[in-house]
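Researcher: Before we compare anything, I want clean individual predictions. No alignment, no superposition, just each chain on its own. First chain goes here; please echo the sequence and then give the structure tokens.
Model: Echoing the first chain and its structure:
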Amino acid sequence: MSDFFGKETLDRVRMANDLVEVVQWLGVPLKRSGANHKALCPFHKEKTPSFHVNQRTQSFKCFGCGAGGDAFRFLMLREGLDFPTAVRRLAERAQIRLPEASGAAERGPTRERREKLYEALAKARDWYHLLLMRDRRADAARRYLKDRKFTSAVAREYRLGYSPADGAGLVAWAKDQGIAPGVLEEAGLAMQGRSGWFDRFRGRLMIPIADDFGRIVGFTARLLASSAKEAKYINTSETPVFHKGRLLFGLDRAKRLLQERRSALLCEGQLDCIRCQSAGIGWAIAPQGTALTEDQARILRRYVDEVVLCFDADSAGQEATWRNAGVLIAAGLSVKAATLSAGEDPDSLIRKHGAAAMEKALAAAADIFEHRALTLRGRLDMRDPRNHQRVVEHMAPLLAMIENEPQRLRAAANVCDILGIPTEAFLAEYARLRRRMRRPLAADASEEEAGSPEAPLRAFRCADLLLRATLTEPAAARMLAAHLKIEWLEGYPLAEVFIHALAAARKGEWQEGWGGVPADASEDARARVAAVLTQPLPRDRKTLAADLQDNLHHLEAQHLRRQREQTLTRLKASSLSSEELQNLQARIAALNKEITRLDRLRRSR
């Protein structure tokens, strides 16, 4: 994170954006509750408020889903942004001008250059839309929309447009607007030929594509006249602001609802998405083409835990469903698939039978493995054992992507039940195939134990209180900097943050709250810090001082217990000399004595 902005810049932006105001600015109503503000969490469904904002420490924490952090983190979660973009948004809100990152010119287009493209694209969208609504040349486009039962209100809402077939209208209009042909070319709107500049899109229905901020970045253009030479749909080519594999159509409109539902409906095309959204199914989005990318799946993961796929019912649509499911599962998302009748898609189903029919199909959506098993059952003769092998080979790669072992086993059992395959035989063949792949069906127990040592939770709670005091009380920070030893923090998840804050206190550079957290702290660390900061400290100074001493004693005692365990392990060695044995026994006795002393100090309170 610090590669983009210096700590001084981050602190300035953070201080200029009060977290309570930011949370309410982003549509979350807060109510005061003691020292905190509370609300229903915007990141998961709940009936009782568990989302807390501490204005003093400028931290938020949800004790239901675990989300937490500072203003940057809240904006990242709420809007699905990366860290640099969140910083820029809050800087704009506070009217703070950010310095360009070093090397920005080499890494990509400047901000001013991108703004010119956004402006040109927005103006082009408005011009295309005006033609659709008023120009005689757009008669075919209006008939097409009428035949598809898209109303004028929908056309206005989504700013649908029309590009003239003559191929020169946009270039001529842009010249009058003072938009240079080179800007049109860079935005993917115009091309240069031997006879001069001409429009990129000609004789097509224009569907504007927005990024998740709602900025127009490109278009999908639908051919109106049948042609064997031209593609029915074409997209804006890759530009500095249009990256097909990183865009999801409709996300700018749907993202708040996605966060509330934690589920997304992924349609095959933009018109399917528009039909769903305009019919009240506001959680619909669409990729830019049938093939979902890893980037798009990662973007979805910011908003939802589950994706319902609803592609065309033909064989191509079903294969696209299975292929895209793999991308989504690999990103850690649960996947379902909705089944429509042959020849139907979301647009046609809603047009013929209304939104209720689509809602019914979505309510009946099946887990992706169940859906695939039902599809295979209709294609294969499962009485033939050779087809059992084909099913396992077909299912194995996606089953292997499921991180949760019980969930993998349940999915495999459901597949076997639907297809009439003996579960034991399926799992045996699966295990054989998986030995050549990274993730086994069942995790090895010894590996689980080795990778999951029991954490000393009481010690971590003590460290949390001490860190909270270090980040909020300058006198406590100075005391802890003088007395707390780094080795006492062994295994503590926020040890690096704690060490950073203590070092600053020793140098006389203490900063309150998030100012004491390293700028490059991970997202996980920031969420943990948020949980620490939202808990109160004792208001009484004497009580606080006693608590600090008590927790220091506990951390030291835990450290000594670890040393004792290590010494006891050495004591079991058979090759010890009598002198070594005597020294180790004396060491254990000394450790026991000191542990007892520390425990007595704590119990004496």
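Researcher: Okay. Second chain, same rules.
Model: Second chain and its structure:
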Amino acid sequence: MATASIQKSQLQMVFQAGVDGEGYPVLKRKNFSSLKTTATPDQMLAVATALSGLQQHVLYAVERNNAYDIHA
């Protein structure tokens, strides 16, 4: 059976920079690499909320991107 282990994790903050001509949100993303693989969703949200106050646009979403190694 194969197993997977997290090798890298990244925090991605998504901001709404406005709306397009059809009324859909225009999104911009900022990535923060070297996130601890053990970081909890609550910790990530707290950091993103604190950092969003320093940004020009409104925080729209917080995402996590993980890279895995898969072993047989």
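Researcher: What stands out in the second chain?
Model: Residues 49 and 59 are 8 Å apart (CA to CA). Additionally, The chain is about 15% helix and 55% strand.
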